[in-house]
Amino acid sequence: MLQDVADLNLSDCHGKVGVPRQLVIKKDPSSIPYEVNKAGLKLPLVAKPLVLDGSAKSHELFLAYDQFSLAELEPPLVLQEFVNHGGILFKVYIVGEIIKVVRRFSLPNVSKRELEKVAGVFRFPRVSSSAASADDADLEPSVAEHPPQPLLENLARELRHRLGLRLFNIDMIREHGTRDVFYVIDINYFPGKYNLFALKPNLLYFLIRFRLSSVLDSGTFELNVLSDKFSCLLSKIE
C-alpha cells in the first residue's frame, strides 16, 4: 500500500508527501547485508515484521545501526530507511470523509555522531500505542504542528480511490528541520481497538451512514434500530 503513496508523488503548496525507501526481505537473513547494499539503502534502518497477526511480537520495531547486524533479524520483514522526525508520529485516521489526527511519541532522532559510534540492532516496543500519546505534551511548535488539513484531504481522497478503503489509518512523520516534508511510513486497514474509543462519535456516524445507504437501496428503513445496534457494538470496544 505504501507504493500507492509513492506513485502519487503528492506535492502542492501545502507540502510534499513521500515514502522512505524500503526493501522487503522474505527469507535468508544471512543475505540481508548484501541486499541492503545492493539496494543502496542508508543506515540506520527500521525493521518491521512483514505480517501482522495481532501479537505483541508482530508490532515490535528494530533499529539497525550497521549492515552486518541485520543478519540477526528474522524474516519476513520490511527494512525502511529511518527519517529523523523529532520523535513525533502523526496517526491520521480516515473514517469516510472524516479525518482525525492524533500525535504519538516515536523513535528519537539519530545523530551522525551516534551513527558513527553505535553498532548493533536495538528492539523497541510498539511506539504508536495509546500509552504513548503526545497530544498533551509540551513540544516545540515546529514538531507538534499537525500536517496541513488540505494536504491530508488530498492524500485521503487519493488513497480512498486507489485502495478502495473507507476506514483506515496512516502513520505519518514530518522530516526533522522541515515544515512541509512528510513521509507515510505505514498504512493500516483498520484502527486498533485501543484507538477506536477516540473515534467513537465519528465511527458511529460513518457506520450509520454506510448502513443507511444499503438500507435505502434495499427499500427498508430502521434508523433507530441501526443506531442502537451500532451504539451497543461500540460500547463493547471500551
From TrEMBL:
Its cofactor is Mg(2+). Its EC number is 2.7.1.159. It comes from the Eukaryota. Residues 14-207 form the Inositol 1,3,4-trisphosphate 5/6-kinase ATP-grasp domain. Keywords: ATP-binding, Kinase, Magnesium, Metal-binding, Nucleotide-binding, Transferase. GO terms for biological process: inositol trisphosphate metabolic process. It holds the Pfam family Ins134_P3_kin. InterPro entries: Inositol_tetrakis-P_1-kinase, InsP(3)kin_ATP-grasp. It is an enzyme of class 2 (transferase). GO terms for cellular component: cytoplasm. One of its GO terms (molecular function) is ATP binding. Belongs to the ITPK1 family. Monomer. This is inositol-1,3,4-trisphosphate 5/6-kinase. It comes from Carya illinoinensis.
